[in-house]
Design goal:
By secondary structure, the protein is mainly β. It is 10% helix and 38% strand. The longest helix is centred in the first third of the chain and has 21 residues. The radius of gyration is 21 Å and the shape is globular. The structure holds 6-O-phosphono-beta-D-tagatofuranose.
C-alpha cells in the first residue's frame, strides 16, 4: 500500500535540499526534526489563508480547468514557498506534492532526470545532464491553465478549431497508471473521458503516456490513443515541445526542411509556402508547421555548444516551429519544435490504438 508517511511535513524555503532528500527517503530523524516546522507552517496557512492551504484538497482524477484566461487565474502558487511532501515510490521515482499539483521525478542510474506533472502529464524538465527543456517565465503552476513549457500534449485538436485551442489533454489531471523503477525508471500516465471531455468531444478513449528516463541519458515518450468506443474518431495533436537554448540568435533547426511545404500562420491570411532553407532559424515572431517533416530533427544550440536531438520514431507526421518573439515569455531562450499530426487528422477505428513515439537526447 502506498502511503505518504511524511504527511504534514512542510518544506518551506530555507529547508535544505539534504532534508528534502531525507524526507523523500523516509528518514525518521528528518521526520522528527521537521515536526515543529510543520506545525508552524500550518499555523501560517491558517493565518494568511495562503494558497498553500489548497494543498489539502485531493486532486480528483480527471479534474480539469477549462478557463485558460490568465486574468482569471487563482493566486499563483509560489513553488519556492509551497509545502513539499515527497515519497520515493519506486527505485529512481519520487512523487512530490507541490501546492495543488503532483510531480514525479525520474532519475536514471546515469543521473539523467526528468520532472513530470500529472497536470497535463507535462514533462517540465529533462536534464541530460544539462537542461533540455524550457518553462516560460509566465507559466502557471496552479492548475488554472496548461503549463506553458516543457512537453505539453495538445490533443485531440492542435491549434484553434471546433473545441478549445490545443484541446483538453494538457489541462486535465492524468492518473499514474503504472510505475517501473530501476536503472531506467518509467511512469505511465492515463487519461480517460470525463463529463468535461465528453462535453466538447463525445468519444470514448483511453490515452496512455509513458515517460522513461534511460540510463543512456535519453528521454523516451510514448503516447497511445485507444478507441474504446463503437464509433471511429479523428484527432490532430502535437507535443508542444519547448526547448531551452542559450541564444535564439545562435540557434538553427536541422532536418528535412528544404523544399518542404509549410503552413505559415504569420502570413495574412495564413498560407502554404515552400521552405527554401536547409536550416530553420528564427529572427522574428514565427509560427510555422512543416508538413511531412519528421524523423530526426536537431536543434543546434550553438551558444551552449550542444545539439538537441528530437527523434520522432513513430506516429508523428509534421514538425511545427514556434517562437512568439516576446521578452515576457522568455523568447530569446527557447524555441518550440513540435512533433505532431497537424495537416492531416489521425483516424482511430473502434478497438484500434494509435502510437506516437519521440525521444530526446543531447549530442
Ligand atoms: O504551436 C504554435 C501555437 O499553436 C501558436 O499558434 C500559439 O498559439 C502557440 O501555439 C501557443 O499556444 P498556447 O495556447 O499554449 O498559448
Amino acid at each position: 500500500m502506498r502511503a505518504f508517511a511524511l504527511a504534514l511535513l512542510v518544506g518551506f524555503a530555507g529547508t535544505s535540499q539534504a532534508r528534502r532528500v531525507a524526507r523523500s527517503q523516509h528518514d525518521p530523524a528528518a521526520l522528527e526534526s521537521d515536526a515543529s516546522d510543520s506545525l508552524a507552517a500550518i499555523a501560517q496557512m491558517l493565518a494568511t489563508n495562503s494558497p498553500v492551504a489548497a494543498f489539502s484538497a485531493p486532486a480528483a482524477a480527471g479534474r480539469f480547468r477549462s478557463d485558460f484566461d490568465a486574468s482569471s487565474a487563482t493566486t499563483p502558487i509560489d513553488r519556492a514557498s509551497s509545502p513539499i511532501m515527497a515519497e520515493t515510490i519506486a527505485e529512481g521515482i519520487v512523487e512530490t506534492k507541490e501546492g495543488p499539483l503532483t510531480k514525479l521525478t525520474l532519475t536514471s542510474s546515469s543521473g539523467a532526470a526528468a520532472e513530470v506533472y500529472t497536470f497535463g502529464a507535462t514533462v517540465t524538465s529533462f536534464k541530460a545532464p544539462s537542461e533540455v527543456l524550457f518553462v516560460r517565465p509566465d507559466a502557471k503552476f496552479d492548475g488554472s491553465k496548461p503549463i506553458s513549457g516543457g512537453l505539453p500534449f495538445c490533443w485531440p485538436q492542435f491549434g484553434p478549431g471546433d473545441i478549445q485551442q490545443h484541446g483538453f489533454a494538457r489541462n486535465c489531471d492524468w492518473t499514474v497508471a503504472e510505475t517501473s523503477g530501476g536503472a531506467s525508471p518509467s511512469v505511465t500516465f492515463e487519461l480517460k473521458p470525463s463529463e468535461y471531455t465528453k462535453g466538447m468531444w463525445d468519444y470514448d478513449f483511453t490515452n496512455k503516456y509513458t515517460v522513461t528516463v534511460g540510463e543512456d541519458n535519453k528521454l523516451q515518450t510514448v503516447f497511445t490513443v485507444e478507441n474504446k468506443g463503437s464509433k471511429e474518431f479523428s484527432f490532430t495533436g502535437a507535443l508542444h515541445s519547448y526547448f531551452s537554448v542559450g541564444d535564439i540568435d545562435q540557434t538553427a533547426v536541422q532536418g528535412a526542411f528544404k523544399g518542404a511545404t509549410l503552413f505559415d500562420r504569420m502570413l495574412d491570411p495564413p498560407a502554404r509556402t515552400e521552405e527554401g532553407r536547409e536550416e530553420v532559424t528564427v529572427a522574428e515572431e514565427t509560427d510555422r508547421c512543416y508538413e511531412g517533416v519528421n524523423g530526426v530533427v536537431k536543434i543546434a544550440d550553438k551558444a551552449n555548444s550542444r545539439t538537441i536531438v528530437i527523434d520522432n520514431k513513430a506516429g508523428y507526421a509534421d514538425t511545427c516551429v514556434w517562437n512568439p518573439w516576446s521578452e515576457d515569455m522568455g523568447s530569446k531562450k527557447f524555441i518550440c519544435v513540435e512533433s505532431g499530426n497537424v495537416k492531416d487528422a489521425v483516424t482511430v477505428a473502434p478497438g484500434s490504438v494509435w502510437k506516437g513515439e519521440m525521444t530526446l537526447s543531447l549530442e
